[in-house]
Design brief:
By secondary structure, the chain is α/β, with parallel strands linked by helices. It has seven helices and ten strands. The protein has two domains: 122 residues, P-loop containing nucleotide triphosphate hydrolases (Rossmann fold, 3-Layer(aba) Sandwich), CATH 3.40.50.300; 108 residues, Rossmann fold, CATH 3.40.50.300. The model has no long low-confidence stretch (mean pLDDT 87).
């Protein structure tokens, strides 16, 4: 079985869902996931399992050599949280015991040479001639044209300014398609901005040209939000509707939310 780790629950679930859809198979059969408090895979049937890094550590506590896996893929390693660093340290020891285990470390920004040197130290202690050497594979990506705009002067309250900016985009960029993503620092700010956006969106209904404006669909996104609420950000918007996603840095990596045309970043994370 192939194990793929993600630093966030929503990423593990969404990637498993995406891969199942692309292969036109039922989730939980050949492809599944396991996160805290929720499993969706079938033992002895599932071939690719997406998990959070914390859950992989829990599996290593039960059986340190992880005999159920032949390949482990660590994704988004550049986040360098505690769980990821612990896994890197433990897997270096595991690979000394298991010549058959293949490890793939994925990241867009991590220092690949430094990681290679780290695992090369473990390879020196292996006596088997069958073990694969540590190597670096690079996959070139492409950048999309991005227009960056800054405030002309500092604002007194970045929360209020985020709301004002989002509504200004909504009203002045009516001819441009694209949802809006707002980055804030925590759950309290996200909930506060969502409430303000909903309240002001209702006020817009009395605007004289309101009938020409798209409807607004405001969605929060943070780690402690129930999973079914988090997954709403991936739903396709209805016609004549613009989605505003108010998120913490959970949406910074691991996730690809289609349809985003505008990003408002407070710069505090």
């Amino acid at each position: 079985m192939i194990c793929v780790t993600e630093p966030r629950r929503i990423a593990a679930v969404n990637l498993a869902k995406r891969m199942s859809e692309e292969k036109s198979i039922v989730m939980g059969q050949e492809i599944g996931y396991a996160i805290r408090f929720e499993d969706c895979y079938t033992p002895n049937v599932t071939q690719i399992k997406f998990v959070t890094d914390g859950l992989l550590i829990r599996e290593m506590m039960q059986n340190p050599l992880l005999p159920q896996y032949s390949v482990i893929i660590l994704d988004e390693v550049h986040e360098r949280n505690v769980n990821t660093d612990i896994i890197l340290g433990l897997l270096k020891k595991v690979m000394k015991k298991r010549d058959d285990l293949k490890l793939i470390v994925c990241s867009a920004t991590v220092d690949a040479e430094e990681l290679k040197l780290y695992f090369d130290e473990g390879e020196k202690n292996k006596k088997s001639a069958n073990c694969l050497p540590t190597c670096i594979l690079s996959v070139e990506g492409r950048y999309y044209p991005i227009e960056i705009s800054y405030l002309s002067e500092a604002c007194d309250n970045y929360i209020n300014t985020s709301v004002t900016t989002a509504l200004a985009i909504h009203m002045t960029q009516e001819d441009k398609d694209g949802d809006i993503l707002i980055f804030l620092t925590g759950q309290d700010e996200v909930d506060s901005v969502c409430s303000m956006l909903i309240e002001r969106a209702n006020d817009l209904k009395s605007f004289k040209n309101a009938r020409y404006l798209k409807k607004l669909w405001v969605l929060p996104l943070y780690g402690s939000l129930p999973m079914h609420e988090q997954l709403k950000v991936f739903e396709t918007t209805q016609r004549n509707t613009r989605k505003i996603i108010v998120a913490t840095n959970i949406a910074e990596t691991s996730l690809t939310i289609s349809g985003i045309g505008f990003v408002i970043d407070s710069g505090f994370m």
